Amino acid sequence: TDLRMPQGDGEHLLECLKRNQATYAIPVIVISGQKSHRVESQMRRLGADSFFHKPICYDVLMDEINQYMQLRERA
Q1: 3-class SS at 50?
Q2: Using CA of residue 57, residue 58, residue 59, residue 65, what is the dihedral sign?
Q3: Measured in Å, how far apart are the chain's first and last C-alpha atoms?
Q4: Which end of the chain, N or C, is more open, meaning fewer C-beta atoms within 10 Å of its C-beta?
């Protein structure tokens, strides 16, 4: 998720996913244009599995997604 989206807030989405028993185990990757380490720390406290600053290389993002997909397949 992106932190700032036109129709929503990625932080709220993350909080909702991690509070819900049916969705708390879904890995969440946060992407943000905000360069603050405080923002990254906050997202990790809320349960973000990964955090990237924009711009992000497509291959890096796909490698990260694949890492979580492989972990899910083994479970």
Answers
A1: strand
A2: positive
A3: 23
A4: C
Residue 46 in tokens: 């809320």
The identity of residue 61, as a single letter, is L
pLDDT truncated to tens, each residue of the chain (75 aa)?
A: 888 887 878 899 999 999 999 999 999 999 999 888 899 999 999 999 999 999 999 999 999 999 988 655 555
Nearest to 27 by CA among 69, 74, 73, 75: 69
In angstroms, the CA 11 to CA 67 distance is 22
Other CB atoms within 10 Å distance of the CB of residue 28 = 20
Structure-block tokens of residue 44? 């990790």
Q: Are 51 and 40 in contact (CB under 8 A)?
A: yes
DSSP bridge partners of 31: 2, 52
DSSP 20: S
